[in-house]
Design brief:
The chain has twelve helices and 21 strands. The chain is an alpha/beta fold and about 450 residues long. It folds into three domains: about 5-40; about 75-280, Rossmann fold (3-Layer(aba) Sandwich), CATH 3.40.50; about 285-460, Ribosomal Protein S5, domain 2 (2-Layer Sandwich). The chain has a nine-stranded mixed β-sheet, sandwiched between helices. Strand 13 (about 300-305) and strand 14 form a beta hairpin. Bound molecules: thymidine-5'-diphosphate (TYD) and magnesium ion. Thymidine-5'-diphosphate binds near residues 101 and 103.
Length: about 450
């Protein structure tokens, strides 16, 4: 009698496995996250007794050729990818539903097609007519060259897709929108489940590696960020790009979370318009465009994203605490524990008591800042809000704050100073440079630099 394939219940949140269904995953505590998956038992090679072939090893000092790249013709995208797409590589593009992944990828495929590359866009989410309508709206259907090289297909069947790809060896770039809609025959669970997502991706990746086309997988990130989404694929692909941004804002940031062929801290900035995503080569000007000088509680921060300096406005609003409980700390675009630290240092080292105030902090533009270098700008905004005195409208800040109130040096002072001067600011408040080993890089002529050693100097 043939053995029945083993049935298994897998938590879609943490991938813990159970022989029986239960309402709640014991490992991560998630309710209703278990799904049945069938496993066909494969005999282990080690057990089957087959002797493996010997590996052919090689020396370290051979010739290495850098990978050829397909230019996407979109500077912001190239920057994040590391100057283009590498043939045979697999890129995962993740992001919230509705953030603009399909739009970005359609624009990219058109740009690639325009440059003469053969591109296939497979959608499991939209019908061909919907994609056509989108292309019309984005005015992508005007270019005869793009129309010749770009092909569309609507399918969710990975078996059909792989057969097509095997027959069409001239394809150079294949986009799958999205991996969560894909379905592989023989895997007994619904599209979007961990095992379907993983098996579909595995099939497609295997083919990309053997045939040498660039595979781009689009994946939705769900609210919790983990559910059967791009996270289960991160280790299988060469690059992971997250497309993020605030729904209410027009800015979209493409960020590399992993990249085998480039740096991971680069970002690409786009603005959403009626006619699609527009690249933003100079984000600082855009982020500061709506700034009103002369309002207390605002300070300009000279930050760094990858190799690119970006100026942002930090806004703080203080209000008397409502009710008896702890004061509110509402933070958008920055780390709230970092804010608590700056508040504590201001109180303990500079005597500025804000414990009875609700603090609202906002980094404008919808960008999430992770650098400790923003400490000084945050402190300046807090001091300005507390004293009611606006910071000078032509002044920018950067520097990390230590627990004793000292202001510490941060990386890339020169690049930050240049950007500050480029945007017409005349003053910069930065950490003090001590010792000869780390002398301060020369500042542009138009800029007056105030080196500050301790936070209490700033309060004064
Ligand atoms: P879409 O690309 O479909 O998002 P995703 O694939 O991530 O779910 O974009 C969502 C909606 O936003 C869609 O109706 C088109 C619209 N949109 C614009 O109008 N302009 C733009 O620049 C972008 C990116 C999207
Ligand atoms: Mg989409």
């Amino acid at each position: 009698m043939a053995k029945k394939p083993a049935s298994l219940f897998v938590c879609q949140n943490c991938q813990a496995q159970y022989p029986k269904w239960t309402g709640r995953c014991e490992q991560c505590g998630e309710w209703n996250s278990l799904e049945e998956e069938t496993r066909t038992a494969t005999p282990s090679k080690a057990v089957s007794g087959r002797k493996g072939a010997g590996l052919k090893t090689t020396r370290l000092d051979g010739r290495a050729t850098p990978p050829a790249r397909l230019d996407t013709n979109m500077a912001e995208l190239n920057r994040v990818l590391g100057s283009g797409l590498v043939p045979g590589s697999v890129v995962l593009v993740g992001g919230d539903p509705g953030i603009g992944k399909s739009t970005l990828m359609l624009q990219m495929t058109c740009a690639l097609a325009r440059a003469g590359h053969n591109v296939l866009y497979v959608s499991g989410e939209e019908a061909i007519d919907q994609i056509r309508l989108r292309a019309q709206r984005l005015e992508l259907d005007r270019d005869p060259k793009a129309l010749d090289q770009l092909e569309l297909a609507a399918s969710i069947n990975v078996n059909d897709i792989t057969t097509t790809l095997e027959e069409r060896r001239t394809l150079q770039v294949v986009v799958i929108d999205s991996i969560q809609t894909m379905w592989l025959e023989g895997v007994a669970s619904a599209p979007g489940s961990v095992s379907q997502v993983r098996s579909c991706a595995f099939e497609l990746i295997r083919l990309a590696k053997t045939l040498g086309f660039v595979l781009i997988l689009i994946g939705h990130v769900t609210k919790e960020g983990a559910l059967a989404g791009p996270r289960v694929l991160e280790h299988m692909v060469d690059a992971v790009l997250y497309f993020e941004g605030d729904r209410g804002h027009q800015f979209r940031i493409l960020r590399a979370a992993k990249n085998r062929f480039g740096a991971t801290d680069e970002i690409g900035v786009f603005a959403m318009t009626d006619t699609g995503l527009r690249e933003v080569p100079n984000p600082s000007a855009l982020f500061l465009a709506e700034r009103h000088g002369n309002i207390a509680g605002s300070a300009v921060f000279a930050g760094l994203e990858g190799t690119r300096p970006i100026l942002l406005e930090v806004q703080v609003l203080l209000s008397a605490k409502s009710g008896d409980g702890a004061a509110r700390r509402a933070v958008l675009g920055w780390d709230s524990s970092r804010l608590s630290m700056v508040l504590a240092v201001l109180e303990a080292r500079c005597g500025l008591k804000l414990g009875s105030m609700d603090v609202h902090l906002n980094v404008t533009g919808g960008l999430k800042v992770t650098e400790p270098a923003a400490d000084l700008a945050v402190a300046a905004a807090l001091i300005s809000a507390a004293t009611g005195q606006p910071t000078a409208p032509d002044e920018a800040y950067f520097g990390e704050i230590g627990l004793s109130g000292e202001i510490r040096q941060v990386s890339q002072t020169g690049i930050r100073l240049k950007e500050i001067a480029k945007l017409g600011f005349r003053q910069a408040v930065i950490p003090r440079h001590v010792g000869t080993a780390n002398a301060r890089p020369k500042a542009p002529q138009s800029l007056t630099v105030a080196e500050t050693g301790h936070l209490s100097d700033l309060v004064r």
